[in-house]
Write a structure and sequence with these properties.
The complex is a heterodimer. By secondary structure, chain A is an alpha+beta fold. Chain A is built from 5 helices and 4 strands. Chain A has 2 domains: 96 residues, 2-Layer Sandwich (Alpha-Beta Plaits); 66 residues, no CATH class. By secondary structure, chain B is an all-alpha fold. The chains are: A alpha+beta, B mainly alpha.
């Protein structure tokens, strides 16, 4: 017996970024908090309007850079002064001056890794499917449509009440999508 | 978009109100007069100290003016919109270059107090050791003056071209001056970089004619551009406190100015460290002499101030996004950067004279007041009753509306 598919949320489709922004602000004011917007291009101020929290990625990158820095110092000290202490051109076994370029490089390398892979991870990627693809008009989101999804798990969510609310705020297409 | 906070930009007049201008002129005029009074007293009491202190003050201001010229041209070349509201003030800092031509006169008069190579006895002794006639071909007072005149003619011409093109748009809103400035900026970058590099060799590197570094010019200009962004930000924060362009230059613009200060903090450190490491690694006596002098006695402490104060502290203060968007933090950073840039120039010049350790002198402050007083007063005079933003630039509106993502 097939289980009844649960609802992911309600899609509200708008024809302009201004209408989308107005609807987001109204929805926030009405107490909705679990929402996601899909647009063909970045819209200034949309994160603030949706109340998105600042990403923690910056702090993760900071940890990555500190790790890279520590590994580089340890690597050069251990190889140069402990494991293979060779006198080369009368230089000390370990000195900070010639080590800094490698410290810099490994700092940048690990920062970049954490930034790229952290960004992918925090975005919930990789994944094979997303409920927004269940929306019949999802292709137009990469073209000229601006979509707001209010998720069914929101405390304020109510299939008919939310639909009326978004219709009143300029959505010209509304659709419930499956999870 | 209806939610943006920059809609009030139309409230700004882009003129400095007469009452504020008058007050500024009185303050800067007093600064100018007192500065020159003190500097002349310094000259009377100690010629050599006067010229040495004056060179530090002059080069400090010069490097910032060159930074302004380079970045004015970069804005034209990249077609930046974010910087358009602040660009007229950039241009006005760049216009310090002709004034610096006049302020060069004391250096020309002090050649014998400053430069060993200007003494025939020194050159006669050196000639025995050299294969190339450096002093006949390059480092002699006559050519030193010729080059200085040439530099200032070139810089004045270019600065005037860029500025008058920009001004020509104010009323007409014509596009042609924008294209003209783009055309002048491409060769201008090359010309300014080469000439300012040569000028830093002439005026500062040749204080020790035995030492050379091919990175010296870019080192000076990296610090100068850094100081320039600090000064530009400082000026706009002062404007803001007086209600001038306060609705036009928003947190978004300060954020970008902060990014530039941060980027140039790193760029300066990159250049400074590269120069240091290459010399450290080669370990040749004729090259290490520069750092030896700066790691001896109390000069080592000044070198430490540069590593920690010029680089590390500024880096940490400006690293976070929020600190670049918090105007009180930026205000602190601008003053900090300008002080550190002064320490940097002092560190380049003074160890050539103060071999027994750092010896600050009241004439250092007097010459700074004279040079900065002159340039600040000239800057202020240029802003009287004129538009202080390029309101006719085709990207002006876009620049006002600029937002960081």
């Amino acid at each position: 017996m097939a289980e009844k598919p649960s609802i992911h949320g309600l899609v509200a489709d708008f024809d302009s970024p201004d209408k989308l922004m107005d609807a987001i602000r109204a929805a926030r004011k009405a107490g909705y908090s679990k929402m996601e917007a899909y647009t063909p291009f970045p819209i200034h101020g949309i994160d603030d309007a949706m109340g998105a929290k600042p990403s923690i990625l910056g702090y993760l990158v900071l940890c990555g850079s500190a790790t890279g820095m520590a590994i580089a110092v340890w690597l050069q000290w251990w190889t140069g002064a402990v494991a293979y202490p060779l006198v080369i051109a009368g230089k000390p076994f370990f000195a900070l001056e010639p080590s800094i370029p490698i410290i810099f490089e490994l700092t940048v390398l690990l920062s970049a890794f954490v930034a790229v892979f952290g960004m992918i991870g925090l975005n919930g990627l990789p994944r094979l499917h997303h409920p927004i693809f269940n929306y019949s008009g999802h292709r137009a989101i990469t073209d000229d449509r601006f979509v707001l999804v209010i998720e069914a798990s929101d405390r304020e969510f109510d299939a008919t009440g939310t639909r009326d609310f978004l219709a009143a705020h300029g959505a010209d297409k509304l659709e419930l999508i499956e999870a | 978009m209806s939610h943006s906070h920059h809609h009030n930009a139309q409230q700004d007049s882009y003129y400095i109100p007469d009452a504020i201008w008058d007050r500024g002129r009185n303050v800067l005029g007093a600064f100018f007069l007192l500065g020159w009074g003190a500097a002349l007293a310094g000259y009377a009491s100690n010629h050599d100290q006067f010229f040495q202190s004056y060179l530090v003050a002059f080069f400090f201001a010069f490097s910032i003016a060159i930074g302004a010229a380079l970045f004015t041209m970069i804005q034209h070349l990249t077609g930046s919109a974010w910087s358009v509201p602040v660009r007229r003030i950039m241009e006005n800092i760049m216009l310090s270059l002709p004034v610096l031509g006049l302020l060069f006169i004391p250096i020309a008069l002090g050649v014998h107090s400053l430069y060993e190579w200007s003494h025939p006895e020194f050159v006669a002794k050196e000639l025995l050791k050299l294969k190339v006639p450096v002093y006949e071909l390059y480092l002699n007072p006559k050519l030193f003056y010729v080059r200085a005149v040439a530099y200032f003619c070139i810089w004045t011409f270019w600065a005037w071209r860029l500025y008058s093109n920009s001004r020509a748009q104010d009323a007409t809103k014509a596009l042609e001056p924008t294209f003209s400035n783009e055309r002048w900026s491409a060769p201008g970058m090359l010309v300014f970089f080469l000439t300012s590099s040569l000028a830093s060799v002439d005026w500062v590197m040749s204080l020790n004619p035995h030492w050379y570094s091919t990175m010296f010019g870019v080192y000076c200009m990296a610090g100068g551009a850094w100081g320039f962004f600090a000064l530009l930000t400082f000026i706009f924060l002062r404007f803001r406190a007086n209600g001038i362009m306060a609705n036009s230059v928003t947190t978004e613009h300060y954020h970008d100015l902060g990014k530039w200060m941060f980027a140039l903090t790193v760029f300066w450190a990159y250049i400074a460290f590269s120069q240091y490491m290459l010399i450290w690694y080669a370990n040749l006596p004729e090259e290490t002499v520069f750092f030896l002098a700066r790691r001896t006695g109390t000069w080592e402490a000044v070198s430490g101030i540069l590593v920690f104060g010029h680089f590390l502290i500024t880096f940490l203060v400006l690293l976070a996004r929020n600190s670049k968007r918090t105007l009180n933090v930026l205000r602190f950073a601008t003053i900090w950067i300008l002080v550190m840039h002064y320490v940097d120039i002092y560190w380049l010049v003074m160890p050539n004279f103060q071999k027994n350790g750092v010896a600050p002198h009241w004439i250092d402050l007097a010459t700074m007041a004279a040079v900065l007083g002159t340039l600040a007063l000239a800057f202020w005079m240029r802003l009287r009753k004129v538009v202080i933003a390029p309101v006719g630039d085709p990207r002006f509106k876009k620049g006002l509306e600029f937002q960081n993502v």
